[in-house]
Amino acid sequence: MPLPSLQDIIAAIATPPGKGAVGIVRVSGEGSIELVAGLWKGKNPLELKLNSFTYGKILGADGEVLDEALLLVFRAPHSYTGQDSAELHTHGSPAVLRKVLQALVEAGARPAGPGEFTLRAYISGRMDLAQAEAVLSLVESESDAARRQALRGLSAGLSNKIQALSEGLFDLLAHIQAWLDYPEEGVEPAEIRGRLEPILGEVRRLLATAPAGRIAQRGARIALVGAPNAGKSSLLNALLGYDRAIVTPIPGTTRDYLEAPLEIAGVPVTAVDTAGVRPTEDPVEKSGVERALQIAREADLILYLADSSQPQLPPPALPWERSLKVATKADLPAVWDTQGFLPVSSATGAGLEELRRAIHDRLLRDAPEGEVWITNERQAEALARAEAYLCEALEAPEDLAGLSIEGALEALASILGKNVSDEVIERVFRNFCVGK
Ligand SMILES: Nc1nc2c(c(=O)[nH]1)N(C=O)[C@@H](CNc1ccc(C(=O)N[C@@H](CCC(=O)O)C(=O)O)cc1)CN2
Ligand SMILES: Nc1nc2c(ncn2[C@@H]2O[C@H](COP(=O)(O)OP(=O)(O)OP(=O)(O)O)[C@@H](O)[C@H]2O)c(=O)[nH]1
Ligand SMILES: [Mg+2]
Asked: Quick check: ipTM above 0.85?
């Protein structure tokens, strides 16, 4: 399917469904201001000072007043889409918004598709594809970490980085070409490797931020695992700040798993409290234990809890590289060496802040705070492709390295939306909401 036409005037409700203090209907396209002028009673929109609000009334086709509203007018190219655009700020009632959209459509606008305003901004060259994706990430950001990264992407943080890497590769290509054409004058072949390696290193560092980017955007699953009575449910409650899970002194209290959403140091997290792991013949408890181990295997991070006030049985087999070890009940005297464990007391709250920090640092381990991260699957795939090409270039004989470098350049360019198929573009914008 071809991308939608830029010629039509598109219209959409830009505010979320439901009631609100104010609702916004936006229109964009050549002739959109004239179209709105036909429905506007007040100062002539065509004579308005740019980017200023005016108060007036919106009229339906038969002259009926639909609402009192504010009108905001943008002139091409100084608008979000780069085209003539207008916004009607109405009372935030679904009935008003529907009626205003209907009046605009009756006057000649077409209902916009998902993300079509941002698509226009992309096509008109006001932003590249990575920035458009950052708009989507920003709208969807539910945590502070995600918000910060999306904003960085929107202001071309990632785009500039990709651009810099590409320039390094273009430069290298030119040198290789010079060497092929004038072997006595061009760079030494040995220099190619020396120049490729740092670029490959940069690509790898950026690629390594992808898991953190995904976690900042989508959140992480953290499993609380340990022997019965280790204090898993108590720790869940302490992290939440309210009593979500049942706590008793009887080992085996939690029989099934229990999920609770929370935010840890700016990262959205689903914490999963599980049944205590121990050898058992009880069929109900056995299922609970199996489930606990399954949840641990699938989690982004495991908190392995061990009661520091009680002698411990050997721990179960867990993916320790994805685990943090926690020594619970730190308010009681320890009866074993808790070195390598984070001491925490759910009873007093001691160690909780350190635990939150440790969870945050572990989840975002490969993503330095002040830098850009990869925040979606499409970007990660393209970067992985660039990495593979660069490895290939390092292995190839000098006269063939250029081909692999070109492959890497193409992969990098696709992150910015250069030379990508309409299908790729469509897939990106399909995830947007209507009105964005
Ligand atoms: N009401 C409203 N709020 C909004 C938006 C919007 O479109 N409407 N935005 C988006 O959905 C975001 C703001 N982004 C925007 C980006 C550029 C322009 C714009 O008109 N730029 C022109 C003029 C700039 C200027 O006057 O300095 C330009 O860049 O040329 C508008 C909004 C968030 N809040
Ligand atoms: N002194 C002290 N007691 C604690 C602490 N945390 C938990 N306990 C006690 O330890 C017992 C077990 O706590 P739970 O949180 O139910 O332990 P659990 O790991 O969820 O146990 P199961 O659900 O049976 O696997 C309860 O009596 C808690 O009050 C702590 O930090 N200090
Ligand atoms: Mg429990």
From this structure: no
